[in-house]
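Notebook entry, structure prediction.
Reason for the run: the old model in the group folder had no record of what sequence produced it. Starting over properly, with the input documented here first.
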Amino acid sequence: MKRRVKIVLAVCCLILVPVVGLLVLAQREAAVEWSPDEFCHRSVSYVHLLGFRIGQYDLEEWQTATEAYLHENGIASVLEEVEPRWYYVRGNARSFLGGPEEIIGPAYSKCVSMQCFERENDMLVEWSKSNPKMAAVFWPEFVKLAREERYRLLPELISIYTDFDDSSNSPQELREAIAAIQADGQQNGTPNEVMQQ
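New structure, fully documented this time:
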């Protein structure tokens, strides 16, 4: 009888030790990613083991008010002919037994500049509707820079939009301001900054 108990305990240990070890080593990661090709976000969860992603679930694609406006007006049409790129914005990784670790990705600056984490924020949309001439210059340039992955320039571009309106400025003035930001970025060696996750 004792021998049988010992065998059962040994088998349980052989099963439980690897399982517990995997739980200790495994990580769950809840992330937000952004696609310059689809011009939208997705919320996704990953499971990692020994540094490798072994599972993906809870996928949900969503748009901010500004992104919806850009799609509705044909400014950021989905690029159907390419496999969409998805870049990391931010996420939280935690082991099954430990606390969270925040991770910031390469597309974070773009999302902060567009208030992406306030999905219903429509300040940019309201400006665009009130200033259609400025918006017709501003947004195509913004989308172009985003699709070239020049995310570091986008916060600076967003920061100037309130300085321009249809009643006080010409489209050419806005074009010159945008060109100055791009030239400064090139001069300071702002390359395509992101790497696919």
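Summary: Helices lie at 2-25, 65-72, 108-113, 123-130, 132-147, 154-160, 171-187.
The old model has been moved to the deprecated folder.
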